[in-house]
């Protein structure tokens, strides 16, 4: 991967002048490369990762990780089913997998009931869906390569033993 892309991937706020200085190339070349990457769709968007553990927001959304078994469609494979799924506004991500399940879907909603309703009323009844397993995200420790736990903060929850 291009060094400019590597820098932007680790820090979307990296200034073209700083990138140029790091790589010892003219700033104009960096700006042109970024503009070209954006135009070609290589850079899809710039993103901020928020550590919601710090915010302790009462209105925090619920995230579900859903494994989906699918019967692929003749001459279309998994693509058309995946497209029907990822078009739902609740769906953040949709991936084709190897292994016991075919698709991995990440869904977000305002509460547990809404996400459960999505799975029960929209996803599971879809044609060619043979089964789902839903996991609810309880805590994020690392997201998109970034550690989210506060350094030096101790976990004050009691230990649970089996």
Describe the protein.
- This protein has 162 residues and is of the alpha+beta class.
- The chain folds into two domains: 3-40, no CATH class; 57-143, Alpha-Beta Plaits (2-Layer Sandwich).
- It has six helices and six strands.
- Strands 2-3-1-4 form a four-stranded antiparallel β-sheet.
- A hairpin with a 2-residue loop joins strand 5 and strand 6 (146-147).
- The longest helix is centred in the first third of the chain and has 14 residues, at 27-40.
- The radius of gyration is 20 Å and the shape is globular.
- The mean pLDDT is 87.
Brief summary:
With 162 residues, the protein is an alpha+beta fold.
Any idea what the CATH architecture of the largest domain is? 2-Layer Sandwich
Give the count of structural domains: 2
SSE string, helix = H, strand = E?
A: HHHHEHEEHEEE
Number of strands: 6
Q: What is the count of helical runs?
A: 6
Q: Low-confidence spans: pLDDT under 50, at least 5 residues?
A: none
